[in-house]
Amino acid sequence: MTKSELVEKLAGRFPQLLLRDADISVKTILDAMSDALADGHRIEIRGFGSFGLNRRPPRVGRNPKSGERVLVPEKRVPHFKAGKELRERVDRSLLRSPVNGGSGGGGAHAAHGQAGQSAQAGGSALLDGGLNLVRS
Predict the structure, then answer these.
(1) Is the full-model pTM beyond 0.90?
(2) Out of the domains of life, which is the source (predicted)?
(3) pLDDT at residue 103 above 70?
(4) Which of 69, 73, 97, 132 could form a disulfide with 46 if both were Cys (CB 3.0 to 4.6 A apart)?
């Protein structure tokens, strides 16, 4: 699901909400989440999952062209951990309709495609007031 699809779904779910207002709402939520992560906070959306930061320590890497050793500085990278309800919902949908016709193959693409389908199906649960943002 893309951001524009989420905006359309939000506007469709709430007819009194203009598409422009739905777009502003989605952008505001995403900006608030981005700001919280940039400030080092954790975001928890009960039933959906949590966003946090993982620290990648500094390391010595190599320039692939020259083979020269290069110091790669420490980084903080965003990390998402799915909540129990989301994991169970994705698992149930996988049992009902396997991606790419069954087991084996597909790897990350199959998992990503299935998660996208579940996010589309689960959008209404989030829109029903199921958001509970916790900053820590």
Answers:
(1) no
(2) Bacteria
(3) no
(4) 132
